Amino acid sequence: MTGARNRQGPRAIKKHSKKQRNRPKKRTGGGQQPARVAAPASVPADQLETTADASPAAEAPRPAPSAPPQPAQQQAKPAQPNKPAQQAKPAPQAKPAQQIKPAPASKPAKNKPATGASGGGQGRPAALAASAPGGAAAAGREFSFIALFVETCDSFLDALRNSPARLLLWVMAVYGALWFAATISFPAMPFDSYEMFLFGKEMQWGYWKHPPLEPWLTEIAYQLTFHWIGSHFVLAIASILVTFYFIWLIGIETVGKTGAVLAIALTILIYYFGPPVTMYSHNVGQLPIFAATVYIYRKAVLDNRIGNWALFGVAAALLMYSKYSGALLLAVLGLHLLLMPQGRRALATRGPYLAVLVGTALLLPNLIWLVQNDFLPFTFAFDRPPVEGVFAKLFAGLKFLGSQVGYHAGMIVIVLLAMIPKLPLQGEPVTLELEQPKTFDKSLVLMAAFLPLLMIGAMTAYAGVDQRPEIGGSLVALSGLAMVMLLPQKLVLRAPRLVTTIWLLVLIGLPIGHVAHNYAKASGSGQVPTQMWPARELSNAMQSIWNGKSFRRFDIVTGDFKQAGFVALYASPRPSVFIDADFRKSPWITPERLKASGTLVLWSTADFPRTDEIPEPYRKALEGLTPTLGTLVLPLGHGKSQTYGWAVMLPPEPGR
C-alpha cells in the first residue's frame, strides 16, 4: 500500500494534504496516532467503537502499537529518500477513522454483552458451559435436552388445542403399536387367552363362565388368519382402539374435539387400559360395545329414527352376548329414557319397542341355552366365599367400590397435578376451552360411567359375596369422558409440562415396563407368569406321550382349563378340553364320546400332589377307562421346574 501510494506522484500527495486540513487536530495529534488506528484494520467495527469509548487513562499507553507501521516504512522504495515527511502522513489509513462515529455507536456495543447475559442467544449457554463440570460441550447437551423436553410438552399441548384430531391419530398409533409389541414379545399367552381358544373351538351358544361372543371372534380370527395365534392379540388391541373411536364420536358432540381427545388421554391412565389389554378377554371385548351402545342410544333418542332404534336393538344384543354385566348398562339407559323429556317423547313412538323386539330376537338362542343349563354363568359369578354379618357384607361392597377408585387412580392424580401452583420449567398456564355439554348428554355419560359400578357394589353387599374387582373392567369405557364433563368449561392447567411428561411416561413406559416386569418375575424366585410358561413344550411332551401309548387320534384332554388349555392350544389338530372332568362345564363332551375316544388326563402336583393315582375329582367321570400313569418334570428356566402327573386313559379293547 505504501509503495503504491508513493508511485502516484506529487498530485496525489497534494490531494491528501487538502483533506487533512479540515480534520480536527485531536484526530491528527502526533504522527503515531493515525498509525495506531490503522493497524487493526481487520478488527470488526463494533470492537473499534468500544475502543473509542475507552477512558483516557486506558488510551494513554497505546503509542506502543506505532511499531507495526515501521516495517512498512522500511519497505518503501529507496528511490524517494527525500520524502520522509510525506510518507509519515498516513492519510489513507486515517480515512476509515474519520468514518467511525464513536459516541453514538458505542452505546449499543456496550449493551450487547448485557443482552446475552440476560438470557439472549449466547448468554445462557455460556453460563451453563462455565458452571458445568464437563465444560461447554456437556453444558450444551444439557441445554438441548431441556429445550427438547419443553418443546415436546408445548407441542403436545398446542396440538391438543389446535389440531386434536391429528393428535388423536398419533396417540392411537403409539398406544396400539407399543401394546401389540408387548403382547407378542412373550413366548406364551396370558391366562384368559387359553380360555378363549378353549371355548371358541366348540362354538356353543353359551359357556360355563360367560356368553359366547369373545370365544366366537377368537376362533373366527384364528381360522381366517390360517391358525395364527397372534390374531388374538390383534382382537385385543383393536377392541381398545374402537373404544377410543366411539369415545371420540360421543365427545365431539358433547364436549368438543379438544374435550374428546382429553377424555381419551385420561382413559389411557385407567388400569383396565393397561396390562389387561394384552389379552382378548370378555372385559376387553365388551369395552367397545359398551361405548357403541351409549352412542347409538343417544342417536336414537335425539334423532328418533326407526333405523337407529333397530341398530340400538342389535347393539344391546351384542352387549349381552359379550358379557352379562351389560344388562346393568341397559337398565341405566332405560332409567335415563324415563328421566329425560327427550326419552319420554321417544316412548310415544315405535322406536323403543322395535329395539326391544330386535334385541330379544337376536338374544333368544342364548336365552334358551341359559334355561337348558340352569343359568350356569350366573352361578359362576357368585361362586365366591360367602360373607357373613351386616358389617362384613357392607365392607365387601365398599371394598369393591374402593378397588374401582384405585384402578382409576392414575386419571384422578393427573387431574389434581394439573391444578397445582406453577412449578419450575412449567411455562405459562395453559387454558383449554371445552364445550359445555347439554343436560341430556351430561346425565347420560355420568349415569353410564358410574351407576353400573355402584349397582355391582350394592349387589355385592346384598348378596354377601367377596366379588372380584376385575368384574367391573368392562364398564369403564366412559370414565375418562365423565371426568372431562366434571371439569370446568375453561380448564386451566397450571403445571402443563409436568402432567404432559407423566402422561407420556405412562403411554410409552407402561408397555415396556410390563414386559420387563414379567421377564424379571420369571427369572426371580416367585411364580412364573403364564406369559412366560413353556406351554408349547408341555403340549409337545403330552402329544408324544399319547402317541406312544395309543394309535387313536388325540381328541380329548382332561384337566383344569389352564393346564389342559396349554396342551390343547398348541396341539395339532386341537383336541377338546374336558374341563375339570365336569360334564356341566364341558357340554360338548359326552360319556359316549369319552368312551369312544379316550382321554389324556393332566394335573399339576401343586393342585394334586400324587402322580400315582387319578385325582379324586376326576374319577367318577372317567370310570370304565383303563389308565396308564406317569410323571413329567417340565423345566421352566432359571433353575425352576414344575412336576405334572399324567394318565393315558383308553377304552377297554373289544373282547375284554
Rg over CA atoms, rounded to whole Å, is 41 Å
Strand runs, count: 7
Average pLDDT confidence is 82
Which range does the strand content fall in?
5-15%
End-to-end separation in angstroms reads 127 Å
Strand order of the largest sheet: 4-3-5-7-6
Low-confidence stretches: 1-141
DSSP helix fraction: 55-70%
Gross geometry: globular
Q: Structural class of the helices, strands and pairings?
A: alpha/beta
Q: What does the largest sheet look like?
A: 5 strands, mixed
Query: If helices are DSSP runs of H or I spanning 4 or more residues, what is the number of helices?
Result: 31
Q: Would you kindly provide a written description of the structure presented here, covering whatever features stand out?
A:
With 656 residues, the chain is α/β, with parallel strands linked by helices. The protein has 31 helices and 7 strands. It has helices spanning 2-6, 10-21, 33-38, 45-52, 56-59, 69-74, 84-88, 91-99, 102-117, 123-131, 135-162, 164-184, 191-200, 213-224, 231-252, 256-268, 282-303, 306-322, 326-339, 341-347, 351-372, 376-381, 390-407, 409-417, 439-463, 479-486, 496-523, 535-549, 563-570, 591-597, 616-619; strands at residues 430-433, 490-493, 556-559, 576-579, 599-604, 626-637, 640-650. Helix 11 crosses helix 12 and helix 16 packs across helix 26.
